């Protein structure tokens, strides 16, 4: 086990910038998610840590040592690939045992370690299956067993769950987290799925256009996004344009609101999460403190545990999530008021 | 993965030299004044001029083109039909029939050629133009089936279902939907068949009649009799023509698979 | 439309054609191989196994057969040794436009006129030809090489003819190997040689086997190449069979020799069949 740190990494592919001066510390034994839209550089970063790509600038340390000139095969990493990359000419045992054999471990010792790894991923007894006789979830587990059986210093996962269907993915998320905790290995996980990142990781790093735009714990990032991009990319956000007078913000859609921090720019965007808004019919309004915006219900989407209202406020549609507490639904075309606390009203400069 | 980048480049260049140098030498010598291939080369186009008055080569060329053209039409038609049948239908003898298409390229041509000679002689078909067309079509059929099938692999059969749901009959679907979509593959297959027929020597050699030979047979006879740069000249033209044809094929068909 | 009628109308023309040009001729040849003479005019013809017996009784034929199979094995091995690295380099170390262009350049001679390409070697190898000329220019005093009309000359010509087959089949199967597999192996600590022999070669085996058969089978039946490049040294079973049909006019013997050759090829295929089956 070891911590990993990257310093000032930059990489260009032709004229496109894949990474732009990224620095980050991956602490020992923690689970990290690198989250970003496609083309944000997250996969490039992972492949650099693995050694498949070399940075144009900057350096990478694993366990406190510079690994910039160490080839992939000597870096002592474990990696799970997007399509698992199981060797089709080998059975499960030979696949999992491959890394051991390369390291000169064979015979009964290899068998024992392979059996241990398979047990960890709950695939005992699958030793003699061929990869094409396994289901997607099973292949995933074999790939994971193969990556950790050599007890690498760091485990790299490249969108490992993207090829699975939804139910299987949820199951594997829990499994992966359990295995990671059992083994205690530093794990770096690349994904474009925000839910995956939120549920699984101890720390999230968000990349956009080659830059690390924010990092922190899932709760921290979700509650305190530092930019409109992060607010919108991680979770959902209603973005309301407005003009600030140094104290309050006058929204384009009507109404004046107070914000978490003092707006330091004249042109701003306020961001409010849909679940932080409460909705009341105009004639039943009984709250007056906090921020308030008037609107008209366009439609609602009922999904059992919750309700989503789409509310027309001026020329904007605001999304509101409401827990299904009463079973009551506000019908379309009703005039409503939306309430949200100033603490939940984040303010960003309007670029 | 960059696998020993420079070594592999140099190696590839060596292989290319091995493949092309003899051909280039032959071409260079076709422009040599000396009848005895004396080196260094004295530039001359006299052998190409000599070709212009060689009536034997003219008729052999004409024969080659006739055989190639006719057998291309026939094998493209039949081969495309077979590829369509394999793509659309599942039937009991399919596996067997699929294997049966390949003997023309897996049995040595020597054996196929002599067997045709024996059989055609026996039943009275004899040798000559018709015999050669029979043989060349059989040889190019497997290539047509392979090339058209490769194109069919990326065909979405929902298109045929859609046509049928709109009321098109089996053959209307075939000619209005499937065949137009297949056209690049069919063109590639036809060019391919043409090249195969034009270059075919062994079968033609056994089926050539005294009054009817093709260009490769004529070249072979000339080489065996003792050759002159005139043969280089005609060979140069032949090799350019067949490479041109294959470049044409490659416009429509990716040789490395993965269409 | 009746499905059966559709299938029949699509496949009947082609298979009738193949029956007329492949199946019936091979049957006729089998029939001839048991005749004592060519049935022309009023010649007395009877059933006999003499043609087959000749092969086993006269060492001349079996030695030639062996010589042909040895030639086939040598050409195939050389093609494999030269072609596999070439396919590997092409498939895995070169990308984009260059890759496509190089690939096309390599297979372009593949289907271009085989006879002309063999002829081109006579230009290179002949006494006072380009090869001798350039070697003597580089290393004066080497003298004549006398390569023309020798066994190595035949070998050279055949390798030149069939090498693209091997490159093509190997390339197709190597190119189909997902790069992620190779990366996975590296991430597990495997070096280049381990990757080559544990992954690439086993996964490319179908291409290797296909290429080997596509070369071996036509080479043992070759007659034009040995004649043009081997001269008096160019006697192989292929040339003997050709002689029976075009010069000696002993069709039954030629037919019998052809079938013995095909039988031996089938035996070899059969011997490899466990390997071939494993590939499926």
TrEMBL record, chain C:
Database matches in PROSITE patterns: ABC_TM1
Any one biological process term the GO annotation gives: transmembrane transport
UniProt-annotated location(s): Cell membrane
Name of protein: Peptide ABC transporter permease
InterPro entries: MetI-like (IPR000515), MetI-like_sf (IPR035906)
Name of a matching Pfam family: BPD_transp_1
Transmembrane segment boundaries: 7-32, 71-90, 102-124, 149-174, 195-220, 253-276
Annotated SUPFAM superfamilies: MetI-like
GO cellular component: plasma membrane
Main location group: membrane
Family label: Belongs to the binding-protein-dependent transport system permease family. CysTW subfamily.
Keyword Cell membrane: yes
CDD domains: TM_PBP2 (cd06261)
Ranges for domain ABC transmembrane type-1: 65-270
Protein's membrane topology: Multi-pass membrane protein
Keywords: Cell membrane, Membrane, Transmembrane, Transmembrane helix, Transport
Upper lineage: Bacteria, Deltaproteobacteria, SAR324 cluster
Superkingdom of the source species: Bacteria
